[in-house]
Design goal:
mainly alpha, 483 residues, two-stranded antiparallel sheet, 22 helices, two-stranded parallel sheet, 4 domains
């Protein structure tokens, strides 16, 4: 790379490159490993000279410049200069801000959206769950040497806004002062009012020694909470006391009365007296611990499955839930099938609806119809050939999905013609075929020629993947199937 620098300096001295204000010939090029930045004017002579210099350097040294992976950025250039640059250099044009050596370079102050990736990079440099596995001295070194260094690196070229510095400092403080016994400390707390209401309505507390039940929050007073029995009294209790006062502590010499702040009125005394009487009527057994009975399930013990089943009572079951989630395909393929049937794949028609592109593209395989879910998996001639070959290789006399034009409708009708004990294998075969078609579509959409396959090759791929998934179901190469 030193030779390239010397060639550029010689080109400046020979007049192939014009002078740039406040820049010496040596500063015209910045080289770090295989990352190179070259400053020049968008004139025809300088552009051709740059292309020839880079080509000759590649022929002489070995490392050739891939102009397809090279970008040119103009500093306040005209439209004519942009066209000239793209035509001569044969590379893509990139607008500011651009990234070089992980630095965000721009002509104007960066927006909050442009600063956010750097903030994410800083906070994700060390996963939060590791804080409990590192000593405090180690955390201090890690913060000063790694986390803070990333932010300082960006501030070499741009002044960070106040909000970003505060976010970084906040994350570093939480990481440094973490309690090793509480690795979740510092993570954002999510509190769903609806979920809390469901919990309060289904959880029934039986007080024993009072060391697990909260006096002000839990539903332990005859099936009621203190807030429901005495709302004005509850409003006078500080939040910190509501969230920390246990029944065992509150009932010692009626300490809970001291939690009530403010002037006591007649109505407040009446509610306080009613609450005291209700508390006295609760049966307590200090010889056993508190217990919680979950009314959402028959056993009285909380389970996620039982609670979810109870919450979904009365709902409409999706007809394709069993074919999708009951198959023995990998989880990522099940999620893919669910997204496909719900029309949630990011095809070009959906991108256009969301304003991510102006118009839907044509199918990347056949270039005939619009790129959408129905066409990719049922109507595309390539897909119809694949389905025909797959169904024939499985000895199934079923028409391909192209006759219906809708994958879910075809799948529902086709599985009825399959024997009941073979339907799970049929569902897996459908997901495997659709998954392979989607990968072929993406290989053409992103120009990955190595992954593009013919119909015969796709048939082999579907057969191999299906047998691998089936083997994983029987306890074989499960890890390989997951990949």
């Amino acid at each position: 790379m030193e030779a390239l620098t010397r060639i550029v300096v010689k080109a400046v001295e020979a007049g192939l490159f014009g002078d740039l204000a406040s820049i010496s010939p040596l500063q015209r090029i910045s080289v770090y490993a295989d990352d190179v930045v070259l400053f020049l004017k968008p004139l025809q002579g300088e552009l051709w000279a740059t292309r020839h210099i880079l080509s000759l350097f590649g022929e002489a040294s070995g490392p050739h410049v891939n102009f397809r992976k090279t970008t040119a950025t103009l500093i306040r250039g005209s439209h004519e200069e942009e066209e000239r640059t793209a035509r001569i250099l044969g590379c893509e044009l990139a607008a500011f801000p651009i990234r070089y050596l992980r630095l965000q370079l721009a002509l104007r102050p960066l927006t909050k959206a442009e600063w956010q990736p750097l903030l994410d990079q800083v906070t994700k440099s060390v996963p939060g769950w590791q804080r409990g596995l590192i000593s405090r001295e180690g955390r201090l070194v890690l913060i000063n040497s790694v986390v803070a260094a990333r932010a300082v690196h960006q501030m070499v070229v741009a002044e960070a806004p106040t909000w970003m510095l505060e976010e970084i400092n906040k994350w570093m403080r939480a990481f440094f002062w973490a309690d090793p016994e509480r690795p979740w400390q510092g993570l954002p707390g999510l509190k769903d009012p609806e979920a809390e209401g469901v919990f309060q309505s289904l959880a029934q507390f039986t007080v024993g020694d009072g060391r697990l039940t909260y006096f002000w929050r839990d539903r332990w007073i005859g099936g009621y909470t203190a807030e429901e029995l005495a709302p004005e009294v509850f409003a006078r209790v500080p939040t910190r006391r509501r969230n920390s006062r246990l029944v065992a502590e509150a009932l010692q010499e009626d300490v809970w009365i001291d939690d009530i702040h403010g002037e006591m009125t007649v109505d407040l005394w009446m509610q306080c007296l009613n609450l005291w009487e209700a508390v006295e009527e609760v049966e307590k057994d200090s010889t056993r611990p508190d217990s919680i009975t979950w009314k959402g399930v028959e056993s009285g013990t909380y389970t996620a499955k039982g609670t979810y089943k109870m919450l979904c009572q009365g709902g409409i079951r999706w007809a394709m839930s069993k074919p999708v989630w009951g198959s023995f395909s990998p989880m990522k393929c099940k999620v893919f099938a669910w997204l496909t049937l719900r029309y949630r794949l990011w095809t070009s028609d959906r991108r256009a609806r969301h304003g991510l592109q102006e118009h839907p593209d044509l199918c990347y395989i056949c270039l005939q119809e619009e790129d959408n879910v129905d066409h990719i998996f049922t109507l595309c001639p390539y897909a119809r050939q694949v389905w025909y070959r797959v169904l024939r290789s499985a000895n199934l006399r079923i028409a391909d999905p192209g006759f219906t034009g809708n994958l879910q409708r075809w799948w529902t009708e086709a599985r009825k013609r399959v024997r009941r004990f073979d339907r799970k294998r049929f569902d897996t075969m459908v997901i495997c075929t659709a998954w392979t078609l989607w990968k072929q579509r993406n290989a053409r959409a992103f120009g990955n020629e190595r992954e593009q396959k013919t119909v015969e090759q796709v048939l082999v791929q579907v057969r191999d993947d299906f047998h691998l998934w089936e083997r994983a179901k029987r306890g074989g190469r499960l890890g390989a199937a997951r990949e």
